[in-house]
């Protein structure tokens, strides 16, 4: 799918499939080694192995060698050494280690262990016949090769499990994740650090990515300037028009004293409609009383203005907010909150006329792969509303989990809502993504009907539309396994009609396929009528939940992922192709047929269709509803703009979801210790999002690089093939995109804190780009243009204006907004510190001025950095170099409760 480390298989590789042999319930028995007697394990033996077996995971190299499978991953593979050290003797046989490995293992080398890919990312290590047990303190190794590359320590997944038939699986303690008490970030102590630039950090010889050092970061931060600008008048996101009031005598900014608080006059406005915004003002320190400054709220309808538009007028005697609707008043109140600096008692007098650039300003959160709590979602809604985002795309169903209770189909959450070690998958799903065997783990869970409706009501109070998504027909393993368990239950009860009522799999289907995440059983059979009955039943129930919660469902995201090779040996599909009247003549047309038909089901329920651009691009426009939302996720260096333009030219509503810049599960910076996937970008920091010009996708070829830090070209002209057929073209005159959406995929995001770390502060830059069109943005060229680093349409003047705006934005975050996030207990990412040793002094700076910096010299305690620190030596002598390597730096939150990741000065 869009979020896999390996997704580019769908786009550039044809030899990605591999035979999936075996499953979690087909582990072969292993005989004892000849000439040496090993006992059958007891549960106590298994528990002891789990407690005392020390596992280490070490990346050896990303450089493909002669052992790489040339038929897979375009010949790319990386090598890992797994080591096993027994603290005590192990004298039992017939046990296995199950573990998650994102990239499937190709081959291995070991005298005593064998390794096999099972399904998805799940692998099994078994003992060979000549396994001789472990002596106390003995170390054994297993070398394996896996597809593609590994350049981040977070690629390794935790919670290896030891298992033997008829016994309970146990997590091997040495592979459990830990939490850094200072940063709150997840640590994997069993993973050896990546420290070799050429063998470990770079993917291949073409990879020009630079490992971001503290001195590189210091140099980059210098662009922010030496002095801190006054941010008291800054609003995020930036209003369209703003005028400040100045004193006629002094020329200085006029200020309104609000120490006595404010008195709200709601007029005819329903207080409940803006209660969430008023409550936020209270939380930020504004008191509400009858002796305060008048705060007058009113709605002034104007059909010529965009929904959510408002005006804000702060004078010496009052604060006046007028919105075109209640949403506009709400947004005006949030702008008032944005003006506030915590602890300050004055507001600038000004006048604002404001409206959003995009009507769709969204964030997608994946709670399917790893669950995220209701409390996390409610906190997120607060912050989305604070920065005027208005769409929450909630990804509730995927291969690894189904997270929404559906009345009448309890199996979906009883089984699909949790992972444990059940090889038959009748009680839960098999562990994936390092979930471990505990069904009560925090990565498991679901929203009850009451939970979901609470989310909906909270969203409505903040003028946020919830767009649910339960991915189909691919990425549907959780639903398939849940309905298979239901099928088996009713088959055993001989209630055959009920068994097949919502059946998603065909027992006789022998198709062999592999999804992008390497599942061989995750695609709904689109030729079964029961599959469409399931979709209709689920959507009818979801619609009822929304209606009861007071937020009617207006739009549903199908997903629309499919898997190449599915259905080829399905008897039902062969029969359908022979006899259908829909024009389907071959198997690879079935995915589009499914999307078209589901879109029809949704239309009958008066629900609009949304889906990812790749799935939608295969559908026939005449078979789709008039309103279709397409999330365009093509990579810019791979000319992803072409698909976005093609779908917009269909007159569909395109939401820009570009992975290179809008995927928040990617690392912030190019460093192996930065958490996240990186298949489209090695670094996606807040500044990059701020730089984005979503109205003009191809222009980024002028100043961005591809995922290997090499230049690229974006051809947005009229392109024809060898036969003269038009294959791509610019946007038609007047076509525009509906909006912008950030994405948090959660494959290796196992906690709410880590989710917040990845979303914030990037969410604030997303809000800025979705709401405000800056003057430096390059207008789209409807005539077509071919962009490269040589064209320079984005000229030096625009660049200077952009960088100046960024400096003000970065200072506003550091001086004002982070304190507000801390007040709401949001675990935003604290940046790594820029630092260098120069002329015997430590120099340090930070990407968001206003945050604190701490430093630590060898053998000493952490100290607050207030300016250049004399180190007592000149850095170019031998002793200086040795000492400089021991200087460490880190950032500190405004409230002093959290620290950023510690880095060595280099």
Portion of residues in beta strands equals 15-25%
Average pLDDT metric: 94
Distance between the termini: 38 Å
CATH class of the largest domain reads Alpha Beta
Report the oligomer.
Answer: single chain
- Count, helices: 22
CATH homologous superfamily annotation of the largest domain: Glycosidases
Radius of gyration: 29 Å
Percentage of residues in helical conformation: 10-25%
Tell me what the CATH architecture of the largest domain is: Alpha-Beta Barrel
Strand arrangement, major sheet: 20-21-23-24-25-26-27-31
CA-based shape: globular
CATH topology of the largest domain: TIM Barrel
Integer count of domains: 4
Summarize the main sheet.
Answer: 8 strands, parallel, barrel
Provide the low-confidence segments as ranges: 3-35, 874-883
Which structural class fits the helix and strand makeup?
Answer: alpha/beta
Question: How many β strands by DSSP?
Answer: 39
Keywords: Glycosidase, Hydrolase
Catalytic activity: Hydrolysis of terminal non-reducing N-acetyl-D-hexosamine residues in N-acetyl-beta-D-hexosaminides
EC number: 3.2.1.52
Domain Chitobiase/beta-hexosaminidases N-terminal: 51-216
């Amino acid at each position: 799918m869009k979020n896999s480390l390996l997704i580019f298989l769908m786009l550039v590789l044809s030899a990605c499939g591999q035979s999936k042999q075996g499953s979690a319930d087909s582990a072969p028995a292993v005989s004892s080694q000849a000439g040496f007697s090993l006992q059958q394990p007891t549960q106590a033996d298994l528990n002891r192995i789990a407690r005392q077996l020390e596992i280490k995971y070490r990346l050896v190299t990303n450089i493909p060698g002669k052992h790489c499978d040339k038929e897979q991953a375009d010949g790319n593979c990386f090598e890992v050494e797994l080591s096993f050290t027994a603290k005590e003797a192990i004298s039992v046989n017939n046990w296995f280690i199950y573990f998650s490995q994102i990239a499937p293992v190709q081959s291995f080398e070991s005298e005593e262990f064998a390794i096999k890919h099972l399904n998805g990312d799940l692998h099994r290590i078994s003992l060979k016949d000549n396994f001789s047990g472990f002596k106390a303190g003995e170390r054994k190794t297993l070398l394996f090769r896996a597809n593609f590359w590994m350049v981040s320590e977070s690629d390794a997944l935790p919670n290896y499990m030891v298992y033997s038939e008829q016994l309970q699986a146990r997590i091997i303690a040495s592979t459990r994740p830990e939490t850094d008490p200072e940063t709150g970030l997840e640590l994997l102590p069993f993973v050896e650090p990546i420290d070799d630039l050429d063998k470990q950090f770079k993917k291949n010889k073409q990879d020009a990515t630079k490992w971001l050092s503290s001195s590189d970061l210091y140099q980059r931060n210098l662009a922010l300037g030496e002095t801190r600008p006054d941010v008291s008048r800054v609003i995020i996101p930036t209003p369209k028009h703003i005028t400040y009031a100045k004193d006629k005598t002094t020329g200085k900014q006029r200020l309104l004293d609000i120490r006595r608080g404010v008195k709200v006059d709601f007029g005819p406005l329903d207080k409940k409609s803006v209660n969430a915004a008023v409550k936020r003002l209270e939380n930020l320190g504004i008191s509400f009383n009858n002796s305060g400054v008048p705060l007058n709220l009113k709605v002034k309808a104007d059909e010529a203005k965009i929904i959510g538009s408002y005006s804000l007028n702060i004078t010496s005697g009052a604060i006046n907010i007028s919105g075109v609707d209640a949403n506009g008043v709400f947004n005006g109140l949030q702008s008032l909150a944005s003006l506030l600096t915590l602890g300050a008692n004055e507001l600038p007098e000004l006048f604002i006329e404001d409206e959003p650039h995009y009507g769709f300003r969204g964030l997608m959160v994946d709670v399917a792969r790893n669950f995220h709590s209701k409390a996390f979602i409610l906190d997120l809604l607060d912050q989305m509303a604070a920065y005027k985002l208005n769409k929450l795309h909630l990804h509730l169903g995927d291969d690894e989990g189904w997270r929404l209770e559906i009345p009448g189909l309890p199996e979906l959450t009883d089984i699909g809502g949790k992972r444990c070690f059940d090889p038959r998958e009748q009680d839960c799903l098999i562990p994936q993504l390092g979930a471990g065997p505990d069904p009560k783990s925090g990565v498991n869970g679901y929203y009850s009907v009451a939970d979901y409706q609470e989310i909906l009501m909270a969203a409505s109070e903040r003028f946020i539309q919830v767009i649910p998504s339960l991915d189909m027909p691919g990425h549907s393993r959780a639903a398939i396994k849940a309905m298979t368990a239901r099928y088996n239950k009713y088959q055993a009860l001989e209630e055959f009609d009920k068994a097949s009522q919502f059946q998603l799999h065909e027992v006789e289907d022998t198709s062999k396929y592999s999804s992008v995440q390497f599942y061989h059983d995750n695609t709904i059979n689109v030729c079964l009528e029961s599959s469409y009955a399931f979709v209709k039943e689920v959507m009818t129930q979801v619609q009822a939940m929304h209606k009861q919660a007071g937020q009617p469902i207006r739009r549903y995201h199908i997903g629309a992922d499919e898997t190449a090779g599915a259905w080829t040996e399905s008897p039902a599909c062969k029969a359908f192709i022979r006899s259908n009247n829909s024009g389907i003549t071959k198997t690879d047309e079935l995915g589009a047929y499914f999307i078209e038909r589901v879109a029809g089901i949704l239309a009958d329920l008066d629900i609009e269709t949304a889906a990812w651009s790749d799935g939608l691009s295969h559908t026939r426009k005449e078979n789709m509803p008039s309103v279709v939302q397409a999330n365009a996720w093509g990579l810019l260096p791979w000319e992803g703009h072409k698909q976005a333009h093609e779908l917009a030219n269909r007159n569909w509503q395109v939401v820009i979801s570009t992975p290179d810049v809008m995927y928040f599960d990617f690392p912030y910076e190019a460093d192996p210790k930065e958490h996240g996937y990186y298949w489209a970008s090695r670094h996606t920091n807040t500044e990059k999002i701020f730089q984005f010009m979503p109205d003009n996708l191809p222009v980024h070829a002028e100043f961005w690089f591809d995922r290997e830090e090499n230049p690229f070209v974006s051809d947005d002209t009229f392109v024809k093939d060898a036969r003269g057929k038009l294959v791509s073209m610019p946007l038609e005159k007047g076509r525009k995109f509906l909006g912008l959406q950030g994405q948090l995929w959660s494959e290796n995001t196992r906690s709410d804190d880590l989710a917040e770390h990845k979303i914030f502060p990037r969410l604030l830059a997303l809000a800025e780009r979705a709401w405000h069109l800056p003057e430096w943005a390059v207008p789209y060229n409807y005539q077509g243009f071919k962009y490269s680093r040589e064209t320079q349409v984005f000229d030096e003047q625009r660049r200077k204006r952009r960088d100046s705006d960024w400096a003000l934005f970065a200072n506003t975050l550091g001086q004002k907004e982070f304190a507000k996030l801390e007040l709401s207990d949001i675990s935003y990412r604290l940046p790594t510190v820029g630092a260098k040793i120069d002329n015997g002094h430590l120099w340090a700076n930070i990407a968001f001025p206003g945050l604190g910096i701490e430093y630590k010299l060898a053998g000493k305690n952490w100290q607050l950095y207030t300016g250049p620190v004399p180190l007592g030596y000149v850095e170019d002598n031998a002793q200086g170099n040795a000492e400089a390597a021991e200087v460490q730096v880190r950032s500190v939150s405004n409230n002093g409760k959290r620290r950023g990741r510690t880095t060595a000065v280099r």
